[in-house]
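Regression test case RT-17, inverse folding.

Input:
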């Protein structure tokens, strides 16, 4: 797509970050069982139990969620241009067919066979990211090929390079990132994705595509890496402060939402919920997943929880409920605005910091980077299986549960990588 060249070097810092971000998927998926608004339905569906929540784990979950996927796409754009320069478009596409397309098809087939979903559903699960990447590779390759033949983008690319001339100019990209965040995310915060392979990608694809080309242009202007390393602490610190404001606003908004939702829960509504719960428990009992004693205990516990909700119902008027809903929306707005700024600054901070801490090649880092792709592909079923065991048989603290899950899942992933892939 361009003619700028850079030295053929190994980017150890970005390599390490890429592996680190891949492995964080294990932490993310192990944590989600204990995140308010996510874990209850997930844990209940798997085990019939409602897991406890943890604000600390919830904060960790949303911190990783905030920047991880955009960062993946940025790195993909960076290394795509690097590979095209080294090997050309054809080699890029053949390489990605083997490393991305084939694992996607095999991975989604296995996950669907393991009863995550029906085989014919086309559900990609957490591998939706690979399909989006394939589309981005095709777009970038097509533009690069056409520009190499015609040169029609040469002047435009040189003008865009001006935004990448310094970290200060780079911040002007937030003018584009902000509206794209509102388009690609729900309320500018939660990724709006589609995981069915037969359907077009969700709106988040276009947000990711923007970061893909940001990575592409950073590779066109490699001096940015050393420039970012000089002020990485500032970018990361400001990004984290923005994140704290975002999560605080979302928490306050959530409290107002719960206040409105629980304002008028009635005994009739609890009876409906209780009957639905009994049906689920009966099904689990018939399938042999729980004993009669466990079924009785769960039903008793759920009844007590519903009775407590009725007693704590605030009985607000319609006007008060409407006001609570308005406050909930008002606190979402600053979170939605600051979220993309936090995302971009945290990513810039991590890139700059990695240039300092991972300048030299380290054998253990190289090993984890090599293993990270395998870990990303296979970890979901392992994490969910271990979570099922923990939730069904223990009542340990969420932090300990997540720690056990992450360590056990990582050990299984690394051992299987070492045995079946590396050798």
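Golden output:
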């Amino acid at each position: 797509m361009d003619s700028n060249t850079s030295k053929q070097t190994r980017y150890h810092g970005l390599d390490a970050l890429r592996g680190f971000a891949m492995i964080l998927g294990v932490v993310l998926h192990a944590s989600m069982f204990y995140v308010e608004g996510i874990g209850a339905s997930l844990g209940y569906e798997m085990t019939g139990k409602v897991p406890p929540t943890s604000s600390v784990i919830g904060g960790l979950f949303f911190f990783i969620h905030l920047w991880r996927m955009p960062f993946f796409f940025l790195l993909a754009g960076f290394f795509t241009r690097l590979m095209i320069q080294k090997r050309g478009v054809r080699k890029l596409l053949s390489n990605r067919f083997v490393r991305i397309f084939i694992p996607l098809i095999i991975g989604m087939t296995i996950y669907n066979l393991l009863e995550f979903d029906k085989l014919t559903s086309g559900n990609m699960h957490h591998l939706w990211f690979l399909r989006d990447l394939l589309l981005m590779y095709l777009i970038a390759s097509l533009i690069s090929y056409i520009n190499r033949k015609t040169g029609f983008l040469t002047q435009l690319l040189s003008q865009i390079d001006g935004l990448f001339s310094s970290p200060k100019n780079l911040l002007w990209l937030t003018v584009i990132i902000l509206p794209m965040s509102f388009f690609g995310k729900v309320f500018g915060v939660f990724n709006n994705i589609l995981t069915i392979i037969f359907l077009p990608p969700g709106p988040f694809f276009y947000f990711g595509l923007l970061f893909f080309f940001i990575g592409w242009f950073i590779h066109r202007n490699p001096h940015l890496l050393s420039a970012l390393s000089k002020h990485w602490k500032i970018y990361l610190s400001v990004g984290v402060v923005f994140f704290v404001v975002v999560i605080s606003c979302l928490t306050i908004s959530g409290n107002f939402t719960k206040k409105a939702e629980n304002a008028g829960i009635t005994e009739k509504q609890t009876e409906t919920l209780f009957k639905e719960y009994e049906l689920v428990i009966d099904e689990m009992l018939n399938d042999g997943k729980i004993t009669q004693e466990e079924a009785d205990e769960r039903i008793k516990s759920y009844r007590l929880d519903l009775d407590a909700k009725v007693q704590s119902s605030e009985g607000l008027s319609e006007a008060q409920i409407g006001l609570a809903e308005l406050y909930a929306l008002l606190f979402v707005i600053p979170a939605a605005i600051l979220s993309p700024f936090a995302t971009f600054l945290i990513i810039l901070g991590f890139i700059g910091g990695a240039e300092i801490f991972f300048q030299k090649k380290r054998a253990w880092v190289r090993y984890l980077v090599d293993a990270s792709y395998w870990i990303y592909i296979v970890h979901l079923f392992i994490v969910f299986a271990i979570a099922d065991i923990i939730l069904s048989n223990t009542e340990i603290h969420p932090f300990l549960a997540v720690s056990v899950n992450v360590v056990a899942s990582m050990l299984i992933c690394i051992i299987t990588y070492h045995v079946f892939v590396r050798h």
